[in-house]
């Protein structure tokens, strides 16, 4: 006697206890994780792009909101001593990791270095003109480059590479020069260590002529 053939529904049915369709979720018990609930909270906070609420964490970890809040408070206290470079904070109604304020100088330096590496060609050209012709006004910089340099000058000011050094006595125009940070980034001790390319730039008389021609 031949064995009965299973029906299509029986042949394709998932094992007992496994949900069907797109609603499949990974089953876990927070208590079985190596770091427990606090480790689970850290893992979630590590990957969020926006602050996450304690209610969202409660739903994800299937734990009471009050218990989540206790763990968050304990984590915040544990990281408050500055022995870690980060901390957990509640900002804008949600929780996430932030760099610890004690390491602000390191973070600032890293950000500035990153900005410097992304200077555009226009910024580098403008910076070169300022370095070799300082103190120099925006009008003279623009005359040399042949374009409006207002935006580029603001960028260089923001990044700490140049600074307003004085005012021109005749025109009252602001004159710009480079900063010690510029020398540091260029690996120079003084401006005298700049490569000798200044002779290839127009002299002051030519610059004055160009500026006058550019005026309406």
TrEMBL record:
GO biological process, one term: chromosome separation
Origin: domain of life: Bacteria
Entries under InterPro entries matching the protein: ScpB_csome_segregation, WH-like_DNA-bd_sf, WH_DNA-bd_sf
Residues covered by region (Disordered): 1-22
One Pfam match: SMC_ScpB
SUPFAM superfamilies assigned: Winged helix' DNA-binding domain
Coiled coil stretches, renumbered: none
Alphabetized UniProt keyword annotations: Cell cycle, Cell division, Chromosome partition, Cytoplasm
Cytoplasm recorded as keyword: yes
Cell cycle listed as a keyword: yes
Full protein name: Condensin subunit ScpB
């Amino acid at each position: 006697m031949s064995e009965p053939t299973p029906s299509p529904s029986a042949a394709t049915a998932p094992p007992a206890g496994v949900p069907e369709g797109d609603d499949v979720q990974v089953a876990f018990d927070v208590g079985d994780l190596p770091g427990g609930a606090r480790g689970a909270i850290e893992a979630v906070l590590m990957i969020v792009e926006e602050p996450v609420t304690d209610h969202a964490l409660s739903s994800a970890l299937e734990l009471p909101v009050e218990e989540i809040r206790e763990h968050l408070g304990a984590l915040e206290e544990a990281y408050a001593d500055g022995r870690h470079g980060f901390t957990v904070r509640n900002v804008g109604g949600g929780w996430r990791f932030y760099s610890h304020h004690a390491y602000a100088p390191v973070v600032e330096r890293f950000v500035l270095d990153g900005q410097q590496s992304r200077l555009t060609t226009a910024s580098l050209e403008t910076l070169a003109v300022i370095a070799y012709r300082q103190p120099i006004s925006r009008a003279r910089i623009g005359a040399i480059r042949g374009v409006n340099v207002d935006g580029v000058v603001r960028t260089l000011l923001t990044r700490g590479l140049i600074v307003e050094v004085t005012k021109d006595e005749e025109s009252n125009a602001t004159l710009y020069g480079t900063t010690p940070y510029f020398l540091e980034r260029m690996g120079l001790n003084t401006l005298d260590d700049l490569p000798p390319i200044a002779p290839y730039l127009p002299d002051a008389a030519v610059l004055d002529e160009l500026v006058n021609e550019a005026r309406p």
